[in-house]
Every structure is written in structure tokens, then in C-alpha cells.
Task: structure prediction
Amino acid sequence: MKINNRYIFLISVIAFSLVSCSGFLDVSPDNRALVDSEKKITSLLVSAYPDQSAWLMCELSSDNADDNGGTWTYYTPLEKQAFTWSDATEKEQDSPQAIWDGYYHAIAAANQALQAINDLGNPKSLDAQKGEALICRAYCHFVLANVFCKSFGNSSSTDLGIPYMEKTETTVAPKYERGSLSAVYSKINLDIQTALPLIDDQIYTVLKFHFNRQAAYAFATRFNLFYRNYDKVIEYANVVLTSDPLSVLRDWKYGGTLSNNDNFRPDWFIGKDNGATLLNITTQSLWGRIYGPYSAGAKYSHNSAISDNETLSSSGPWGSSGSFYFTRASYSSLPKVVSKKFAEYFEYTDPVNGIGLPHIVQTEFTTDEALLSRAEAYALKKDYDNSAKDLATFMTAYSSAGSQMSRSNINLYYNKLAYYTPTQPTAKKHLNPDFILEAGEQENFIQCILHTRRILTMHEGLRWFDIKRYGIELNRRTVAGNVITVSQNKLTVDDPRRAIQLPQNVINAGLTANPR
Amino acid sequence: MRRLILLFTFLLFGIGLTIGQTIKVTGIVQDKLGESIIGAIITAKDNSKTSVITNVDGKFQMTVAVSTKKLSISYLGMIQQQVDVKPFLEIVLMEDTKQLNEVVVTGMQKMDKRLFTGATDKLDATKTKIDGLSDASRALEGRSAGVTVQNVSGTFGTAPKIRVRGATSIYGSSKPLWVVDGVVVENVTDVSADALSSGDAITLVSSAIAGLNADDIESFQILKDGSATSIYGARAMAGVIVITTKKGKKGTSSINYTGEFTMRLIPGYNEFNIMNSQDQMGIYTEMAQKGWLNFSDVYRAKESGVYGKMYHLINTYDPITKQFALQNTPEARNKYLQEAEMRNTDWFSKLFDTNIQQNHSISISSGTEKTSFYTSLSALSDPGWTKQSSVSRYTANLNVTHNILKNLTLNLISNGSYRDQRAPGTISQSTDVVSGEVKRDFDINPYSYALNTSRALDANTYYTRNYSSFNILHELETNYLNLNVLDLKFQGELKWKLFKNLEFGVLGALNYKTTSQEHFIKESSNQVLAYGAGIIPEDVTIRDANPYLYKNPDNLYDLPISILPEGGIYKKSDYRMKSVDFRSTVNWSQDFQGDHIVNFFGGLETNITDRNSTSFDGWGMQYAMGEIPFYIYQFIKKGIEDGNMYYSLSNTRKRSVAYFGSLTYSYKGKYSLNITSRDEGSNLYSGNSRWLPTWNYGLSWNIQNEKFFQNIKPVISHFSTRASYSLTASPVPDFITNSNVVIKSYNPYRPFADFKESGLQIVSLQNKELTYEKKNELNLGTDLGFFENRINVSFDWYTRNNFNLIGPVNTVGVGGETMKYANVADMKTGGVEFSLSTKNVVSKNFNWTTDFIFGKNRTEVTKLDMQSSVIDLISGSGFAKKGYPNRALFSIPFAGLDEHGYPTFYKADGTKTSGQDAYIDFQSRTNLDYLKYEGPTDPTINGSFGNVFSYKKLKLNVFITYSFGNVVRLDPVFSSEYSDLNSMTLEYRNRWMVPGDEKYTNIPTILSQRELNANSDLTKAYNAYNYSDVRIADGGFVRLKEVSLSYDIPKKLLMKEMSNLSVKVQATNLLLLYADKKLNGQDPEFFRSGGVSTPVPKQFTLTLRAAF
Result:
């Protein structure tokens, strides 16, 4: 062989060595899913719904719970922490940590889907998916903001918000700022506005577990109520409620005929044939057993002292609670008073040792709640006739006393009703919103709506948001038998504890804590 | 011709009066086999500037002054020679046997040890081989300072836990890289370090080199520090073990036969502290008094033994004899129980065998000028130490080297092995997160069974387990695993010496491994019967209690049904791995007059590793009915509802590309400098993190070559020092794959079939910063030889900074995950290694050599964002906590027994738990400072002490290994409730019996049924007791690993064709010379985890070797 050939060989070896290998190294290490088609984006959005629950934290922080005294015990320390508005140490299901992780994980899925849609060039054919992703993202942020921030109001431009995630995270621990609450709300608003026209029920196989059009409008209704955009509330609620609201409301009369035992009522409440149920999400939660007819978690619960005077068994413009179709359940052996709307479903991961995950199915939006939101918007716009009309419609579905809910009856009842004190409880609490609420008729209507909402959304955590919105002050009490002891622990109008503290891990990792 | 030269010489000589007279010399340098030596240095004795190097044919040509009388010929690893100047010289250099370890094989190249700056040990396979241990990796125990080999299981195919200089990673496996004949060996599936001791079926294929016949191995080279391993850069953080297999030699031709016959001892109860049946029945009597063994409970109990059987017999009416199988009279019952009391069943003898394991290996080796080859076949046949543990393994090996041209060599290697193995049926172990108990359903491991099962049971009687009849012998017959392993390797390497000093090499290798694991669970096995208990025969109580039955969630009124009404279960798991390696290298070496030696080695390497695994659960296989399955739709329905898939598929792919270069410069053989760099890219990482350059700087100083050294030479014959500083790395642990977002399908939980849908979810967020785990290492070493190397000492000191290790980290979580795994942890490690080898007696007939090896290693986790959970820290092999060694084991601090005899513990706030409040959160990751630190679970000190005596043809080898510095968790034998199946340890004799005993004993009481029912927290308390500081022992031991006597039959007694015949008797693993008394027979190396795990047995091996 001639020397020349040797050099050619030498050079070719070197040249070969320097050939770029990027294609070779771009091979995916496993067969993970690449979200690159319409079908996969639709599938990804299944996980854009949180699988953790804020109900326990919110409900036990609200006035729907009392300390039932000595002999009863809590099920997890979390219940005590929620009830006493102290920082949570637990990290398991229902904890602030679980809420934070669950909701932000859902947001990540929505953002991943949006990125995939963007990568595919934002085609028209993916509008429905884009709509779902945006509305999921908005909803998760909305819940997070309501749990971990103060209520939306006049100080929101300086109040701490939460990071609004619009992109997927690609590095280990990027820095984030909480921003202001008003910034968060305006982003939620923008996402909702963009999403609403895009929502299309055609892409859903299990309609009730996705933001179908009605559910999306119901969310827009609630959001705008909190955002104080009352015209929008009415506009969106009209879509949900149609021209004949009564026809879409829940058939409480039928529900009331079902047994209070087993899962008959819960199965009906979340059921796919139940038109009033707009959106369900399945969450990992112990709330099903803690709120439910079991001794677990009996220390802090909704009890007859609350029920009889303020909620499920309380009187109102409707007269006595005897007219309600969907009767509460109370137990001689337990201090709890329960409205059995949902139940625990246990998923066994290890049947031999009985280990598994407790779940509840949360009905997040209903037609009933949208109707009460509209009533509230009318009342805040001083359109008392329409407000009264909605309240009457609701009460027609909920009880046999619908006709009682007239404008005059409402005024009459709440004018007469004394304001609440911890030892002389009534359904009428002092309202301290940061906007002007006119004494007299406007306040009466709001009192009535809050009273009704509280009954409707019992155990679902929404009461906590209403307490925040209207600056209602809370006292903690211990109710043992007929003896009521009022605790020094009081939630004042501007109490910083209205914003539940961020999870300790999150604070440790560098996000600004809520002031205490 | 010669005359002509002479004439010419004279002519020159004449001219030389004015320009100096010279003489021309030509010649050839060869080794004793007649192979040309390329690059030998020929120097004029009186003038070192006159020097040449032999060419590719071993030839040289030079001109020397007439005054030069002698030439010196030198070559690395050969004895230097001086010859008189002659016009033509034919020189044969002899190997320098005094300095045996002179060549370092890095797997990619061979280097002169004097130029090598790293820490390494070369082990001659024939010296280290332990006959009768079929997995060669186990032979490394105690052979190299700093290399630990923990035999966590001794079952064939399981890998020992091997560490080179301790752990290098917290979550990774810290496994060394295995390189066989220059090619990295990949496992068929990656088994993490923890999983090695799990006893799961997957461990049977965890050894990368189980398919290698130990007789085919020529040598092991263990590369320890960064300088030695840096050529493997980003894969070599945990050290490299290079195996070189045998090759044919030119000019020799031989056939070798090795036969090994191994007998293993059956363990005996005298080694353990297990109660005999009398004591055991005494305990049962107490249990009966405490409400455990009454008729109503035990008759339908999930598991029951002697008492359960008695109640069943009492209730069995024989219509023919018109009698009950056992009369329900106190006399009859007592008689029955007395029989049990006297039974003393020896489960070991029922479940173990002394069958002979045989291994036959035959090899042919031959070579000519052109071609040399080595080929071998081996067959291992092992009927099994325990029931259902037979193994057959066949290997074939062919290694051919052919010189196509004088400068072009082709080496072809093909290697195949097939294994057929049987093991007791097992399913994977799991941890009950609530009670903290590590458990395995349906475990029938013979070793565990013998230790866990009451000796009052009769081996031929069926008792109750999982509500169905159970007999261990029957179960082993009807519930077993079959494993088929095929391992093929094809490899070719072309070496082309393009110029005198320049060699190109191209290597390609394909490795294909496939493992098929079948689990046969036959119709009559307990595991199958469990799926029907309560239905057949019908028993409402059992039906409602049996967790294996299926209850339709769609209808609240449906009764439970069996999802296995017919047939048995057939499970199959297949693993497949294909690995393709391609490497091209260039080697350039130049010797400038012997003063400057420069060597450059560089190249490009690519690797493709594709793995595939599938599993399949065949339901309703009717083994006895023509192997036709029968199944019902509810099986599928249940699977959908539970999220359990009846089959699975997983494909993974690894791609890597690396460029590497290593430059060595040596001045006069005194000072050497080595710089190595490697740039590796992998598809596991993305973006800027994809490529990682690694490097090493090494220096060595061969002091013995200094002039001043010559004076002390008689005493110190050899003295060199080395230093190296390096960066090496390892890929992240296998479960970390999120350099791109990981999205997978899932089925969100929904209560009703109508609500179910499948979706995609983010399993792991993208971490584009994901990168290799890295390590900086400083190594200082010295090698000393005294009295003509009669005493050799080697000492190494190293310190390592392991960084960018994978660990959990807390983030603000707004990306969707608060806890992530990322490159956030650091660890500092370091240690010393010392080896001393002496030739105590060297004489014609009697020789005595001693080897002492010592290694000490410490690790400390210096950065870890998040703590491990309690259960990880207190169980098994412990885990990582900042400020403590890697794999530190902690205990729940025991606070004594309370007045009821319940164990109590100190809590995080310093208070004690009580029987009423034994709340222990095994999953907690916070406030863990109350846990008591016990020590590392990896030994910190280990080594060996070996003596070889030879007298004429007799050779005695006594090899002792030792290991210290670690702690061992005692077997978790305590429980809040026992059945009449359980055996107990002798410790129970000292148990708490009456109030006041708590002052004298730490052994908790046997709970009464009433006590446990009143407080289920006691279950946690008893589990916590197993993980408390009283249940810990020192893991140190001194083991008589090997005693062997071999005899070479004198040649004159052999037939003419035979060149060698030897006989060897060897005892392996004979006894522990020292171990903590608290262990009571528990082997400190072995993890009793059931499944397929067994300890390394005590065994005797007879080996015959013959050569023709």
C-alpha cells in the first residue's frame, strides 16, 4: 500500500470521528408518550383536573364546624390545624401541600397541552382542546388563589398572589414571584374569556368529568361574582340556566326519597344522568369519612348547634326547614349533622393488607349554585325582583316552600332576625365587605343568599370563600351538649389567616410566605 | 555478505581516522516464542545517544563507534540484555517474571505499569478462582484492597454487592463497570443495589458475568482511581473491573480439562437460635391461654398449624368408621399435642440436599505463526442445594487471532452461554407503608421457611395458609420458576500497524442477552387455592374475609366470587437486551532515544443498548387439562378496576458517543505524566447537559530509576510513587429519565365503569439540567519492594468529592412537583488501601507466601436537600442522611418495656410512646433527629489474609477474609400476633411474663388477642421494636473463606501425552471465625429476604485438572 492511501485512511478516520452525532443521540430513551396529535392532547387534558381536595381545609376553616368537645378525637392533626387557622404540618391528602401539588400538577398538564397545540401550529381543529386547557388552567389558579390568598377586593393590587403558570417548567428549581392578586385575577379572566368560545362538548367522552360548555359557563359565573363583574355573572349564568332554570335544577324532591344509608344519595348526586351536576372531579381525600357518618373526625364537625340555627335545619323566609326535600342526617351516637351528598370510594392497591387510596367525587359546579350566583349579582345590582325570582326558583326545587321566597318575605325575615353571636347563633352575621353594601334591602338579600348558599354548598368548602368575600368574623366555640364555650381564637375582618399559609416545603424552597 | 560488511567496515575504519570509526550492526529482537518485539530499544553501552528502535518486524539497523563493545537491548516487561557488538545479532528477550504486574490492561489498551499513574490491581484468575463458585465475580472477595464483595444472596445468577472504593452515589447503584475483552458488559436488566438483596426473581439475572465460564478467564484488572478509569470517563465513577479471557499462544498446543464436584452442607438448627418443638409448644400453650388458638378463630383462620389441624380433625367425621378423625376429648387432644411436642421436625433436612454440583470445562488452545486460537466448552449441572433450585449452564467460547498481514491482525471472539434454572415460586416483595412491614405474599423460600416455621409441624401434613391447605413440599412441587437465559457475544477487532509507531484499531461487538422467566403456579398449589378459599368449599366467614376474592363494585348486593374458578396461574416475564459497541482507536508511541517516551491513545466509541421487557399474567392455565386456559371476564374487569394490567411491555434505549484521548509522556522512565480526557454524549440528557467532558492528570515517579537510589537497592528493590487527580462520572440512576418531560398513560380513579376513561399524565417534569453524577478524586500511591521484591508493599490514599449526585429536592412546586429528583446531592468519601505480599520462604521444595490486604473507606453525605423517610432509614440497608455515611442505618430508640410488657420508644419530642399511643409515622421525612444512628450498612474495613504453602507438588491455601465497620439489622422476628405456624427464637424464653419483668428483660410480651383488639397501634409498636436499637448487631466478621489442598501428580506417573494432572480439595466458606454473638447464626453478609435468596453455603469441592 502506498503511503498516500494510508494518509487517506487516516484522514477519513478523523473525519468520521468528527461527524456530528446529534441525530444518534436524539433517540428517546423509552417509549414515553409524545404529545403530538389531537387524540393525545385530548388525553393529556384528562390530567388537567386536580386529584387533590381543598374541601377539608376550607370547610373546617369556616363556620360550618365547631369543636364538639372532650371525648371526641380528630382523625388527622390536619383537622385541628384547619379548625384553629394554624399552619398545617401534615403533608398527606387534604393538606395545603397536597392541594398545592395537585392543582399545580393539573396546571402543568394544561400548559403541556397548550405547548403541544402551539407546536402543532395552533390549528382550528384543536380549538376545543385549547379551550379546555385554558379553562382548566384558569380554574386551578382560581382555587389556589382563593385558598392561599386573601379574597379579591380593593387591596388586591398589593395583596400577594400566587405564581400564575403559563409555561411548563423545564429546570429543577426556577425562581418565582407571587405577584399581586389582581394580576392573578386578570390572568384568570383572560384565560376564561379566551376559552369560553372555544369549548366544544364533542371532544369529551365522559362529559361530566370535563369542562363541558355548561360547566365552563358556571365557572365563569362564579369567577365573575368573585371578580365583582356582575353583568358578566348574569350573562354567563343565563347560558347555564337556560330560559327555564327550574328545568335544569336538581330534582331534590327525588333525591329526598333516596335512603340516607350506603351510597344511594352520593351515587345519585354525582350521577351521569343528573343534569344539575355540571362537573365532577375525583380527588384523593379523607374528607368522605371525616365529614361522613363515622366516628372518624368527630371532634371538629358540622353539628346540630350550627345546623339548627344557621344551616340545614334553620328557619328562613321559607319557613321551617321541614319543607326541605333533601333531609339532613343526624345520629344519636355522633355529634355530626350530615348532608349526604358524597361518599368515600376506596381504591385498593393492596387488597391483602387492605391498603389503598381513599377518594371522593367532588361535584364542583351545579346549576343550583349558578342560580344563586345570579341571584347575588342581581342583588348587588339592586335588581331585587330578579334576585327574588331566582331565589324562589331555587327554593321551588329545593323545598316545598318556593312561593315563600318573595321580595317582601325576605326583607321581613332578615329585618327581624337578630345578628349572630356565638352563644345566640342566628343565620345573620355581620357583613364587612370592602365595598358598600347598603343596609336594609340589599343587605337582607345578601344575607338571604349567603344563608341559602351555605345550605346548598354544605361540606363543599365554598362557605369559606363567602366568609372571606364578605369579611365575616368568626369565633371558635366548643359545643358540648348544650354548653357553648367561646374560644379566644377569633378571625377578625382583616385577619391575615384568611389566606391559608403556604405549605412549609414551598416556603422553605423560597416562595414568600403569607404574613402572620 | 558478512565479508562484504567487514570489508566495508574496514573501509570506514580507515576513513574513521579522521571522522571517527564506526561499525554497522543489524539484527532482530524476538521473545522466547519467536514473536518479533516491536519497539525494543537498542542502545550503545558507552554512548546512550546512539540508540535505535526495532521496527514492525522486530528488526533494527544501527551504526556504532568501533569503541563500542556492548549493546544494551531493553523492552518494557522484559529483562534487559547486554550483548557484544556483532554485525548481525539475533536477540531473544526473556520476560521479566520478577515484575509480573508490569502491564496494565485498561480494556482499551495495554500500558506499561511504570508509565501508569493510576491505582490498579491485577489478579491472576487461576490464583483467585474459588472452585465450585460458578460466578466469577464472587472470587474477587478480599482479593484487592478497597474492593468489597458482599454476598447478599448466594443463589446462582444473583450478583454480589460489589463496591470499588465504596459507594459513589446515593440513589444510583455504585456498581463497577464490567469490561470483558475490551467491551463493556451490560446487564439484561438493571437491578439496583437495594434490589440485589430483595430476593425477587429479577435478582436471578442480576449478575452481568454469570454466563462467563470462570475457567476461561485469564485475569482481572481492577481499576480503582480516576487515573485508571478515566478512559471510561462518564461511565466509570464506580470503578472498572476488566476481565481478559484466555487466548491461544503461538507455538503451543494443549487441551485442558477441569472437573469440579461440589457438595454443600445442609444447615443445622444448632447454628441458629430457633426453638425446638417442646419449647415452641410451650409458647403455643401461652398463646392459647391468651385467646389466640381457640377453636372459633383458628378453625377459619387465615393461617394455622398444629392447633388449626387439630380442630379440623376434631370436626372431620368419617362416615365409614363412624368416628371423628380426632376425638374431642382432653385425652385425645393432649395426645395429639404431645405428638407435636416431640416432633422436632428438621426442616433443613427436608428442604435441602447434599447433591453434587458438577462443572466440567474443556478447552483447546493452539497457535501458529499465522493463527492462534482458544476454544472451550463447559457444562455446569447443579441439582440444587435446596428443593427447586437446580441449574444447568453451558458455555462456549472461541477466541481466534489471525495475522492477515505482518501489520494487520484480526481477532474474533464469540461467546455463548445458556442457562436453565429453577427456583421456588415467588412474587415481588412490598412494603406495607402503614405498619412498616416488609413482606412477600405466598413466600415459599426453603431457607426462610426452615427458619420461620414451627418445628412442631409435620412435614407431610397439610396445614392452612391463605385460608387454604398448605404443605411446603407440595407447594414447592407445584409453584416454581423456570428461568432460561441466553447470552451471546460476537466480537471482532482489527489492528493495523499503519506506520512503525502508529496503530489503528477497529472493534465491533454485539452482545445479545435474553431471559425468559416462567412462573408455574399449578392447580393444587396453595397460591391458586387461595383464590377460591371460601367458595370451594363454601364458607361464608372465609368468603367475606378472603382478600383474593372479587366483589363487583357495580352492584352492592353481589357476593364475592373467585376470579380463578379453573386452572392455575402462568406468569411470564421476558427481558431482552441488545448492545452494540463500536470503537475505533489510534495508538501512537514514540521513544526518543530512551529519554523521552511519548504515547498517545485516542479514539471514538459508540454504544447502543436496547432493552425490552415484557410480562404476562396467564390466568386460568389448566396445567392438568392439556394446558388450555380458562378464564372469566371478571378477571379482566377486576384488573381494569384495580389498575392492574395483565400484560406489560417496556422498551428502553440508550445511545452514547464518546471521544477520548490519553497522552503519556515519560522521561527516562523516571517521571511520567498522563493526561486523559473523554467527552461523552448520551441520549439520556438533553441540551447543554448532553455532553460531559471528563479528565485526569496523573504523575508517577519511579524512584528506583534515580541514580541516588542505586545505593540502597539491595534493601529496597523497587520504589515508585503516583499521584492523580481526575473527574469521572456515571449515568444517573435508571429511574431518572426526565431530561425531557415524561408523559405516560394512566387511568384516573373513577368509581363507576361509566365514568372511566384513560388519559395521559405528566409522570415527571422536564429537567433539562439533568446531568451525569460526578466525582473528583485525588489519589496518592506508592509501591515498594524490598529484598529483590521478596516483600512487596503497596499503599494508596484517596479522597473523593462526589457531586451532582441524584437526590430529592424541595422546590416551590408551581411547576407541578414539589419534590423532584435532581443533581443536588454531594458526598465526600475517602480511604486508604494497603497490601503486603511476602515470600516468607523461597526454597527448592518449600515455598510460603503471605498476602495481607486491607482497605478502609469512609463516606459522608454532605449535601442532601431532603431527608429519607423513617422506614428507609431504619430498615434493610438504611439510607442517606446529611452528615452521616451513605447507607446509614438508624433505629427507633427503645425506651424499655412498660408495665404491660409492651415495647415503648422515645418520640421526636423526647417523650415516650405508650401502649395506648404508639403512633409512629414510618413515612415521615421531618424531625428525624430522634432516630438513633447505628452505623453504616456497608462495611468500612475489609480485606483478607492469605497464606499459600507449597511443598514439592503439594499446595495448601488458607484464605481468610474479614470485614468490619458496619451494622446489621437483626431479622424482624417480633410481631403483635403469631400463629401456630410460626417458629420463634430462643430469645422468647426471656420474654416479659409478669409485671416487674420489664426491669430485667427487653423481650416484649406475647400479646393476648384482647390486648391487640383493644389497641391496633400495638402492631406498629411491635414492628417498631424490630427496627429499634435493641435489634441491631455488629456486622463485622472474620471468615475462613477457603482452605484448599492441591497436588500435582508427578509427571513420571502420567501417561506420555499428559502434561499435567492435579487434584484439589477445597473447603469454601467453612466458618465464621468471628461474628457478633447477637446474630445467632444469621450470616452478616446475607439478607434473608425470602423469594429466591439463599446464603452462600458451606461447601466442599473436589477439582480435577488435566492437561494434554
